[in-house]
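Homework-ish question, so no full write-ups if that breaks the rules, but can someone show me the predicted structure for this set?
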Amino acid sequence: MTKIKNNIVKLSAEEKIKRSARELFTQKGFAAIKTRDIAEKAGINLALLNYYFRSKQKLYDLIMEENMVAFRNGIIQLFGNTQMNLEQKIENIVQYYIDAFLENRDLPAFIISVIHQHQHGNVIDNKFYTAIGNAQKVFLEQIKTHLQNKGINSIHPAHIMTNLMSLIFFPFTSSNILKSRAGINEQDFIELMIERKKMIPLWIMSMMEPTVNFKK
Amino acid sequence: MTKIKNNIVKLSAEEKIKRSARELFTQKGFAAIKTRDIAEKAGINLALLNYYFRSKQKLYDLIMEENMVAFRNGIIQLFGNTQMNLEQKIENIVQYYIDAFLENRDLPAFIISVIHQHQHGNVIDNKFYTAIGNAQKVFLEQIKTHLQNKGINSIHPAHIMTNLMSLIFFPFTSSNILKSRAGINEQDFIELMIERKKMIPLWIMSMMEPTVNFKK
DNA sequence: GTCTATAGACGGATAGAC
DNA sequence: GTCTATCCGTCTATAGAC
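A: Not a homework solution, just the prediction itself:
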């Protein structure tokens, strides 16, 4: 990447390929994208893709790894933190992921697809699951303690963690449904997502209240 | 499909192809699957695929349409019902979809992918969105009324509908994370999903209580 | 580093025998 | 209806000129 006058940044061919590849792979996955699509979008010659990245598969692996980094680091640092109380932690998690997904709207569907299609044995994936394992345990333990303090033993901590991730991820994958007929446009959608940064923690905390769990 | 003695059902080649195709396409999508994969899985000759279904694309369209039918009909009938009160309706929706997804575990990720990748202009998809549009409106209106009765005007009805779908869909796409290190196996996972049929309605109803929304 | 041209493999589809 | 053999367009990857 070379800076030129007027502070305008002219991207190198390598960078242009990578950005185009990220956008396309994140939207549609490995199999649906042709190297020609990437080259065309980047405005570079097809041969340069192999020159810089060796193969389509290696380029994809690079993109995937980078796409998963933010997700993985978020889990490790936010979920695994042992200083913060549960409510603060949930607020931070919600903030972090919603901000990240507003920046990259295809990321949630990409991550969901990768997680869903995971088959044990893959080296990259195993590294991934091992890395988030401990952080997950810390968070689940914290939920468990919180529930015990509230006198609730009827609900598995995994529900709360799953619900948290559900409320963060899913809306980004289903904006097309809201936009179709619910009278919600792109700007409305963004505002709703911003509102959720405030609301999701309230919703999740209320799920751990006796009044909700023992109702009826 | 021909019945033979001992009540064992021997599938026709056509049916074998369709079942194999459904499993593979639902798991990995159109682009990642080769016609040769389908033929091999079905134990039939590659040429038969084209003989019965004309092309890979036509076979996929057939599978996708069938996969989306249950989802679409669920929305139209359950969301669009004008007789039932909101709580009963939510209970029915949760029951219906969780039961369906327990039967076909890859369906949620498939539906999410189709919805997410939708670009307006596609005929099948437009039919789909038109069909669910009214049912969606009925449901949103009902939520709006419920919120007004509770004296809550700080929250958009779309949040509630989105939350409901989130809590139903997402867990099926992320079971791999729970299974990796949270000490949850396949049987535990199924039990958790069954518990959710009872819990999700309570969680959603509580989101429409003033105590939750005006807290802090 | 960047291009053109092309090798070489793959995958969808079909012709034609049985 | 089912098979084998094969066609042919497409796609990844590379050789080699500049």
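Now go work out the reasoning yourself. Hint: The first helix of chain B runs from residue 13 to 32.
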